[in-house]
Amino acid sequence: VGGYVEEYEGVTLVTVRDAGHLVPSYQPARSLTMISSFLLRLFSPP
Asked: How many structural domains compose the chain?
C-alpha cells in the first residue's frame, strides 16, 4: 500500500506513506501517480 485516499464532504485527503511534507522529494513515483490520478479524476475513495 503506497498510501490512503479519504473523502469527506467534497474534500479529498491523500496520505502517502514514508514521505515527509515534500512528497515529490521523498516518493517521486508515488507523487506522480497521486498527481496524475487527481488530474484524471481516478481517485476512488471507499
From this structure: 1
